[in-house]
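Hello Y.,

Per our agreement to keep a running log of every chain we model this quarter, I'm adding this entry. I've kept the format consistent with earlier entries: sequence first, then predicted structure.
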Amino acid sequence: MRIKFTGFLVFFVLISQAATAADAEKKKAEEKPEKKIEEKSSVTEHTAMIGGKEIKYTATAGTIRLDDEEELKAEASVFYVAYTKKSENPEQAKQDRPVAFCFNGGPGSSAVWLHLGGLGPKRVHLTDEGMLPPPPFRLKDNAASILDVTDLVFIDPVSTGYSRAAKKEKVGEFHGFEGDLKSVSEAVRLYVHRNGRWLSPKYLIGESYGALRVSGLSLTLQKRYGMYLNGIVLVSGVLDFKTLWGDDLSYICFLPALADVAAWHGKLDKELVADMDAFRTEVETFARDDYATALLLGARLDEAKRKEVIEKLAAYTSLDPALIDRNDLRIDTGLFREELLKSEGKVIGRFDGRVTGSLRSESGDPSYDVVYGPFASTMKHYVSQDLKFESDTIYEILTRKVHPWDYKNFSGESIKSTPHLAEALAKNPYLKVLVNCGRQDLATPGFSIQQSLDQLSIAPELHENIRYTYYEGGHMMYTIEESNTAWNNDIRNFIEETKTGAPAE
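Predicted structure for the entry above:
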């Protein structure tokens, strides 16, 4: 009996030892750090003719690894393309020469539009009026690029371009207002730190939702890293979503753009639009005064005044007064796009109200069809062939994979970044803001962002830090040759005027 017990004891000990060894191996495996995303980059040398002068520059296409830390809560690889002008004194240039970080919007857009649309040394070849050329598509030199006055860094947020989260189950950490600000600000910090640009004049340029992003970043960079900016550029931007939809304010804000598009298509009385500047002022005044009052009064608006407002809206948009009446004075952008050229069997674009398509087409926006193919094809060729960055990953031009976008911080209120910008301006009164608007933009009209900025809770003198510029064209006004030149010159002048800080000791 004792022998049997001893045998059982030995067996139990062996089993226990095996289990202990297995647990140790499991624990060791759990403690073993996961393989980190490897950063990679390609550096190439180039020459460009900008403003009639030869510019030698270095292009770096690469990735920045964002580590899983307390604030980020996930790991990711962020793709960027940086252009740095060559200098005889590189170390001094790191202090004297500005650097601008550029973003598009979406959410879900890569930086391809600003990159190959107008700011970079190469741009997509479209017609001079920004319309679709026959394929195959090509790039051309961008003689208007601001690379002569600032280095440029184009950043693709996580899930756009070649940027990806390390784990699919963690990707949602980056798909939201706050998560986006944390990850993008960290990418900016890492670039600045690794390239010795802490003392460089610094700018952010954001288009569309990118304007909401850079307004938020202006505060995040200040508070988190002590990185104060010289300026931000808001291109066809939005700062408060209620100016775009879901509020009567949106109908007020869109009216000037609707009128501009109707005039561009020759649908308005010639005498009314003989002086376009005067016409635009008239429409904006009406929108702020009589139109805003009429919408506010609602059922209390008397019949005579209602008829007067309807007649004005019809004159400014060419829409049928009866249609305006049936829609209770509210002209939805989608309705306008379908109705303006309905008699011709055409629908007009959302991103660019100058562009038309067939009403029978299933395309949601003919103006997006004009740019998608040329930008997608040339970007993929350019990065691999010219910049020598190889990746089999799909380059996401504009993706829905980031949705639903997390706006939990705005529960019960409008989605906006105006408070962030107001605080950034208050903390850094030297921060300047340049706002660029396309006249025929039916996605984020200029009157909308102007209304948002007019409501900034800042000292009166700080409103002087904000300036506006306007161009023919839509959301991407830079696709038009003439507008691209004017737009780059305006940003160039803005940087030249705001880059100087305190004298070096």
